[in-house]
Amino acid sequence: MGRKSGMTMAAIFVVLASTLTTYASTTYTVGDFSGWQVPTSNSNLYDNWADNKTFVVGDDLLFNFITGEHDVAEVTEPGYDACTTTDTISTDNKGPVKITL
């Protein structure tokens, strides 16, 4: 009887282990080699950058810039939709900045 229950437990473990997926977060450098800057010639720079990426909860966005030259404001969804920074979650002007989604 002990051998049978041991085999059953082993089978259950194998099934559970095969259904679990591991997730490793990804760090995305915003703008890649361009970094975080005000686009001078390509106003779609960040739209184009994000087009081929799939972001998930737990991923990090890394904003590379020189301290004091730019800032990063984390906003709520309504703030984003309204394009306003009046009710920010956080603001940082000390580069680089990493925000976890």
UniProtKB/TrEMBL annotation:
One of its GO terms (molecular function) is electron transfer activity. The keyword Signal applies. Residues 1-24 form the signal peptide. GO terms for cellular component: plasma membrane. Keywords: Signal. Residues 26-101 form the Phytocyanin domain. Pfam families: Cu_bind_like. This is Stellacyanin-like. It comes from Gossypium australe.
